[in-house]
Amino acid sequence: MDGNINKHSQGSAEYLLTLTAVLIVAALTVYYLHRAPASPPMSAKAAVDSTGDIIIIEVYSGSVPANEWEYSLTQTQGTGTWVTGDVALAMPNVNLENKATTSGTWYVSLRHKASGHEYFDKR
Q: d(Cα 73, Cα 46) in Å, to the nearest integer?
């Protein structure tokens, strides 16, 4: 009789071990399927061109394809709307058009659209 109890206990332990392994694999699958897309690595900063009228993004490393990034320019911190960049964000720089024709302080923000990762946020 003692031998049957050990075999039954061993079968239960194997069942629980198998169930645990299946649950771990299922959890990892769900995690990898639903995680946010990664943002391309990039190093950049906002600057003003030599005329003082045009805001540019100086890119030091990395790049983001056209239509996959967006920027916000505003003179009131904490406000602004996002505009999609229609050119690749790549070295050496990207001109944000003649947006700074009004003198004063401008707040520039830059983010990757798909992931929402903000490279810098000065809104």
A: 11
